[in-house]
Amino acid sequence: MDMEVDEEVVLYPMQTEKAFTPTPDYSDYKESFASTGTPLVIDNGSWQCRAGWAIEDRPRLVFDNQMAKFRDRKANTSNTYIGNDVYADVLARSNARSAFDGPVMCNPEIMEAVLDYIFIKMGIDADRIAHPLVMTEPVCVPHYNRNLMSELLFESYQVPSVTYGIDALFSLYANGPEQSTDGIVMSAGHYYTHMIPVSQGKVHLEHAKRISYGGEPASEYMLKLMQMKYPTFPMKMTTTQSESLLINHCYVAKDYLGELASYEDPEVFKTKDRVIQFPFVAPVIEEKSEEEQARLAAKRKEQGRRLQEQAAKARLEKLIQREQELEQYNGLKNSKATLKKAEWTEQLKSMGFKEETDLDAAIKTTDAAIRRARNKELGIEEEEKEPPTFPLVDVPDDELSELDRKEKKKQRLLKASHDARMRAKAAKAEETAYQEALARQDAERREKEPQKWLEEMHAKRKELVDKIKAKKQLREQLSDRRSHASQLRMKSIAALASDAPPPKRRRKGQDEDTFGQDDEDWMVYREISREDDSEDEEEANQLNEYEQQLLKYDPEFLHEHTMNAYTPKNSFLHYYTNGLGPYDPAVGLALDQTYQLHLNVERIRVPEVLFQPGIIGLDQTGLVETMQDILKRFDKQARDRLVQNILVTGGMAQVPGLIDRLDQSVRSILPFSPDQKNYSVRKAQDCLLDGWRGAAMVARDGERMDKISVTRQEYEEYGGAYIKEHGLGNAHS
Predict the structure, then answer these.
(1) According to the lineage, what is the superkingdom (predicted)?
(2) Cα separation of 380 and 397, whole Å?
């Protein structure tokens, strides 16, 4: 893929933490709502909580449904933060907790703190809440969890009545009460995506379906993709930041596979790739004046002079020490004529020598070292060493003493080692001369027949490249134990490790074992080895030599045609990670680029899970197949009514392209209609607030509220799990 450099890159800044937006306080309760009995509507979502008065068009409070409670040891105080106030303190952010386990409320203690926060912010300062409550709850909530909420509301706050409903159905009601009797509402919520059919005003929860994918799993999936894509990123990415990437940059592709294929086009890739810039502080480089630079240079020069003096002093001390050792060795050698043999042998052993020959060797070595050190100090070049002599090698053993025979044995070993070095040196010189002759012949052939020489060089290069690629492919296959190459390797290992003894006698007609006579036989050991052999480096050097020759003498062979041009830095994988910007392998990425994320394939991959849950390993069907399964459970007349009103709501419904993709996909599961479009897919007017708005519309209908509300008397009589069935809530079972 021929990638081009993008001239101008648009950067999208990423905040390190979620911004703190304080929740306002309201003080008009006594004047406007204290004695009116106005219903209070709470959309109690697991992500955000929305609360307000039913007579108003919008909720007064919208905040993240969480609480942080911790003790500040320095100030010796206990602190509690609710909602968006959590983002005002670092300790509060790290201690934030939710009352929900998934979409279900499981912690009444945290829920009570959140409700206290709501009532205080709304300005309610009475001993009891004298207002009917309309509150949302999850689809098919367990009785135990509803009982916890009812007990909290009736016992702690003494509310007069409570009405529970499903936020998705409230949203359907808010987008047209006259259309809420028939349709399918798809709620892409924080944890799950639900599809709920409503036929003739009745909610068929027995046919409702759930896909275990929503805003929270999508944010976690985005976070994992980024962590895998940038394992060495200098900053720790949080779920809040991955949630921001999902909300601001993701979209649903009309044709997922087709759009992925289009990313190979550099022009398309440039339009889809988004660069996310994380904050960083550039290092301050102090520019030094000429005087300061001169002072530092003089300081470095002085330090170098001191080091040289120290080294010279160390060499002098070592030379003096060796001269003293040599004087001791010579004194011991000369004392042999004046001392008895036993005394001299004892002194010899006390100085660490076993025999007199060891003393002679030490004298010779020390004297040579002293001579080299003095010559180095005086600047005298050493003369070439004379070849060693071995005078005792050719002398018969009968003419030698015991010590001379031992010395002859040593000289024989030294002579064998010297002869081997000479043979290796001669062979190396011969090989060098041979290579020079080949180079001269190659140069003569190139001058005489340049075209033929180029063809031969290209053929050699192609053969070597094919060999390198075949080895690379074999290594990749060996990593898969089910591959054919891996199975052959295991057969070879089994054959080599077989314990069956070979027959002692060769039967008549049986071939003789000739393993090893052919060099190809030894390839079996390379086949079973996973390690890179020494040939790889030789092949790489040979290939580099061929390509350098072609670059020099073939004008049509460019640097882009070399093997290095296909390295990862020029592949799609590199641009997938680092974008289309300039890249210098010697310099690497700039400091600001190391704090950048490139968002491209992930923009469509994360929301595509709604249509293909198998991408993340979910054993569930996608939106279209789930909707098709729901429609199969109704007769033709009901199906025709349901598909005329398909409403998409919830936070994930805000992802661009979702409605167009659903509209296109739903067409494929419906019967063909040549006259007109026989279905309707639409998005809620406000995917986040329509649940609260629908609940407020119900709360304003006093006659209806009297029929569907659960009063305190009914709570005490039937229990906290009791509800009254209506077309916008769960069924009582």
Answers:
(1) Eukaryota
(2) 43
